[in-house]
Amino acid sequence: MWHRFLFLVLGTLGSLCLSVLALPAEAQAVRASVMIAQGSSPPPFQPETPSTDLSAVRAVHQQINDRYDQQTAAAAAAAEQRQQQRQQQFDEVVQNHAAQAEVDAKQASIPTRTPFQPESPPVAQAVPPPFQPESPPVAQASPPFQPEALVNPSLPEAPIEPPVSPPLPSVIASSPQDPIPSAPKSSAAPKSSTKATVKKLSLGTLSFACASKNGTPTTIAKLNNREIGVILWASTLFANQGFDPQTRCNLVSQRFEEYRKANQLSYLTTGTINRLPVVCVTSQADGACGDGIASHAGLLFTLKPNSDGGEILEQLSNVLTSDASTPTEPLNQ
Fold first, then answer.
1. Is the pTM here over 0.70, yes or no?
2. What residues in the chain have per-residue pLDDT under 70?
3. pLDDT tens digit sequence for 290-299
4. Fewer CB within 10 Å, N or C, the chain?
């Protein structure tokens, strides 16, 4: 900004100098024009020598310096005034912040009062139920049959007790030579022949395990590098009693393997336990279910109610004795 002001001062000074120098020439031109108008010849032109008095120039210079000093002083005063205003604004902001911080500190130091909470009315105690005399004891029903419950092999097996027959009339008791009639059976019990069929097997080096075939638990028999599907456990008939297909597969496969290691898997037969048909092992060709077998009472696995044990035993025998050339479909239980 001061550069512009300096150029303006120099331009003004030059104009003044030119004006001072041009005044004598203008005066002579005026005299010449007057003399020509009067008919007299003007004197020859003699330019005036510039005056050696520099007082006028000095006066102009002094005016310019005075003006510059005034403008510089005014600009400095305006800048100082603006700085004072900014400092005043900053001091006001600092004071406002300090006052607000002091107010916040006072509010934080005041303890807050919890709202009043009236006491809840006392809860009425539960009235004890009226006295009820004990009802006469009811005969407990026998627990549900667990078809594939694993028996601890270290403990002796309990023999399978025959069903208790109802007391006979005195007239029958007086003649012991007559045959005692058996207890009536429900229509849901499977019909069985007088003597169950016994299948003799020669399994060789078969071993048994539980595996998954297409997502279904399956008891398999392993022979060298070949696997034979023996039983597919797809039914959920006994799931409510804790024996889902996977559990039955594990237990029955373990029984097959235990009987095989004990050389007790040579004779298979069928029988009835707790009014349900079963497939079991026996120790001789004409033996009954579990004869001569201590582990698990000879039980292999339980069949569905109303199943034909002889037909299932035939299918199981065909599966266990099949070879690679004539594969047989596994049982579906």
1. no
2. 1-3, 19-30, 32, 34-53, 111-195
3. 999 888 889 9
4. N
Euclidean distance between CA atoms 99 and 269, whole angstroms: 101
